[in-house]
Amino acid sequence: MNTINDRISLFVEALQALLDKHITENFSNLPKIIIGVKPGKKYVKITCDNRSVYCFIDTTNGDILKPASWKAPAKHARGNIFESDLGIHCCGPYGVAYLR
């Protein structure tokens, strides 16, 4: 499973599990957040309930990028989907981590 599409699907599954756990533990009365995937020419857009952008994934190298707007990612990578933890270390329940 080393193709970019396989790694993206594994990342989305791990992200969905992270968000489901957070909602279940802290906001049990709220509905689950559904993660969506919208492929583009260079980036794959990962959305939450098709209302907000969670992150972008660069299809050339697997970098996870924080969104700068609905259409564009921020410049610097926060993680990579080819890391051993699929890059989940840079993801939280409210979005991708800021640079330190």
Structure description:
By secondary structure, the chain is an alpha+beta fold. The chain has one domain. The protein has 1 helix and 7 strands. The strands form 2 sheets. The protein has a 5-stranded antiparallel sheet, covered by helices on one side. The chain has a two-stranded antiparallel ribbon with strand order 6-7. The longest helix is centred in the first third of the chain and has 23 residues. The mean pLDDT is 93.
Kindly list the characteristics that best describe this protein:
100 residues; alpha+beta; 5-stranded antiparallel sheet; two-stranded antiparallel sheet; 1 helix
Quick structural gist:
This protein is 23% helix and 35% strand. It contains one helix and seven strands; from the N terminus they run αβββββββ.
Class from helix and strand fractions: alpha+beta
Number of domains: 1
Largest β sheet strand count, sense and barrel closure: 5 strands, antiparallel
Radius of gyration: 13 Å
**Mean pLDDT across residues:** 93
